[in-house]
């Protein structure tokens, strides 16, 4: 009886005192919640090498049009870099970046020897302008039918730009493209297949945006495969816009061939085609801009804006 009483008393005392080392129940930590999405504005603009619908080269006018879009990331098509007289042998990409205070990336479709020894190479292609840091740039090949070769055959050639942009915590793969312009859709068909193969290499779940002049209507058969993985931002938002969204030619347009597209299911908040008469003369195309939601991975926090 003495031992029984002693053990009982000791257990009672230990429980009351909370003896160190005694197992205690702890509440499981709640799983981390996904940070809220961030909203970014993406645009595409064929700048016609800086020449307006009047064929007058005026990069200030081009910059003013891009500024009016209030876009965070802009895909540029028909960009000259020391190309020739039509753009005063200027680097239109660097000059637009300087005027707009944006980061730049460039992917040449053509890169030719200079006219005079010691001058920069003459290049023409696509570009990206970004308010946010560009973590990586890559120039992919697409099937092309060269305009510089007198007897061209379809062959892989550069000029499909991928920029990995860090938009306030959202890692986003931004692609800029310019598809073949010819009436025969066979080259565009091959380019669409190339595009899908390249974009499929990105990690699942990361945001993707494809910007560009596709030189075909969304309903064109050769573009059909794109819509298996991508959404046409205009088509998603058009019920709230109520306009046809035509982009070419800039004055009295009859075609919608310029696109902002996003990975299937990405929320599109708005989409619009610039229609301000004061700005339409800056190119032979109208720019398209869309606001979309980008997801921020768990463990990340939206970073402060980076000018």
Describe this structure in words.
The protein is α+β, with helices and mostly antiparallel strands and 307 residues long. The protein has one domain (41-294): Endonuclease/exonuclease/phosphatase (Deoxyribonuclease I, Chain A), CATH 3.60.10. Helix content is 19%, strand content 32%. The protein has 5 helices and 12 strands. The strands form 2 sheets. The chain has a 6-stranded mixed sheet. It has a 6-stranded mixed sheet with strand order 5-6-7-8-10-9. The longest helix is centred in the first third of the chain and has 16 residues, at 2-17. The termini are far apart. The relative contact order is 0.17. Mean pLDDT is 89; it is low at 1-23.
Determine the structural class based on helices, strands and strand pairing.
alpha+beta
* Series of H and E elements: HEHEHEEEEEHEEHEEE
Low-pLDDT stretches: 1-23
Number of H/I helices: 5
Q: Tell me the strand order in the biggest sheet.
A: 3-4-2-1-12-11
Binned, the helix content reads 10-25%
The coarse overall form would be globular
CATH superfamily: Endonuclease/exonuclease/phosphatase
Distance between the amino and carboxyl termini? 81 Å
Radius of gyration from CA coordinates: 27 Å
The CATH C-level class name: Alpha Beta
Main β sheet profile: 6 strands, mixed
**CATH topology (level 3) name:** Deoxyribonuclease I, Chain A
Strand content: 25-35%
């Amino acid at each position: 009886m003495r031992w029984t009483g002693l053990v009982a008393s000791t257990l009672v005392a230990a429980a009351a005192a909370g003896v160190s080392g005694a197992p205690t129940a702890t509440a499981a930590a709640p799983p981390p919640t996904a940070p809220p999405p961030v909203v970014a504005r993406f645009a595409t603009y064929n700048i016609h090498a800086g020449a307006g619908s009047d064929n007058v080269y005026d990069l200030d006018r081009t910059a003013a049009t891009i500024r009016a879009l209030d876009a965070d990331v802009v895909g540029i098509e028909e960009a000259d870099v020391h190309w020739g007289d039509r753009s005063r042998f200027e680097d239109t990409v660097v000059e637009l970046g300087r005027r707009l205070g944006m980061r730049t990336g460039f992917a040449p479709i053509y890169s030719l020897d200079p006219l005079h020894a010691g001058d920069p190479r003459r290049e023409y292609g696509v570009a990206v302008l970004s308010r946010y840091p560009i973590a990586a740039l890559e120039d992919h090949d697409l099937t092309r039918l060269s305009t510089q070769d007198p007897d061209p055959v379809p062959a892989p050639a550069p000029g499909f730009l991928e920029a990995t942009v860090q938009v306030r915590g959202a890692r986003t793969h931004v692609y800029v493209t310019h598809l073949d312009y010819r009436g025969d859709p066979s080259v565009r068909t091959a380019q669409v297949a190339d595009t899908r193969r390249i974009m499929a290499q990105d990690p699942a779940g990361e945001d993707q945006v494809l910007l560009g002049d596709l030189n075909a209507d969304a309903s064109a058969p050769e573009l059909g495969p794109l819509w298996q993985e991508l959404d046409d931002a205009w088509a998603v938002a058009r019920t709230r816009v109520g306009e046809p969204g035509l982009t070419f030619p800039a004055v009295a347009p009859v075609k919608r061939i310029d696109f902002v597209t996003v990975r299937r299911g990405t929320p599109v908040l708005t989409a619009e085609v610039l229609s301000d008469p004061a700005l339409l003369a800056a190119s032979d195309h109208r720019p398209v801009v869309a606001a979309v939601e980008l997801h921020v991975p768990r463990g990340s926090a939206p970073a402060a804006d980076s000018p």
